[in-house]
């Protein structure tokens, strides 16, 4: 009887252990399957790989995939704007912001063989997470190297004066286009939003010489502007004086022509009268001439037919002389 009870207890214990083992296996299996649960944030996308091969891309939300090592999930922020710094690094965004210069990245050669220190920022987004995950082993390093190479290439095509002044916008645009061309060629899944030149200046060793050159160019421009201003002031005055002289000459010409025509007309009339009475005209002209020559002298006109005869001349007072 005692032996039967012992066997019964042993069987019951074995059944309990067996049941406990199955339950434990189920718990372990459940925990293992739970490791396949993953959450994708609103600004993220996830890529699922099974046995190292691409399976699908999932968006925001709670998802499940076959647990490791069968499958794996890689996530990336596809809506965030990422940033690459060339020539400097941000130590503390501040305020106040603090930066550290990286001369080996910043120093670049221009098209006219001048050296400039160029700091730039590249902003980009992930447009294809599959290409981004599979084709980029070290995404940041690869993108920074491509951005730096593109910027050096474009700066090397421009003169130093263009890089320092009016050519910045063109350089930014061409660098963005060149960088995007490179990234698309290697199917990186990256879209370049913007390239901005933060600080462009000569190296510290030659900045004084560059300032002198800039001052000389400013003086040149100022002198040219002053000369142009003087020219713009004098040319209208000279033109006005020339126009006035031409008008005065035209008026004098017209006056002299009119006077000459009047003299001709008067002479013609005199000549016509002269032809009608030559003796009378000659006498009148003689008397007018003498009156002009001797304006304040008393003059006595004697008929030549009375020459040699005694004449009574009545003066101003009525006396007979």
UniProtKB/TrEMBL annotation:
The keyword Transmembrane applies. Its main location: membrane. The keyword Magnesium does not apply. It comes from Haliovirga abyssi. Signal peptide: none annotated. The lineage of its organism: Bacteria, Fusobacteriati, Fusobacteriota, Fusobacteriia, Fusobacteriales. SUPFAM superfamilies: Band 7/SPFH domain. InterPro entries: Band7/mec-2_domain, Band_7, Band_7/SPFH_dom_sf, HflK. This is Protein HflK. Belongs to the band 7/mec-2 family. HflK subfamily.
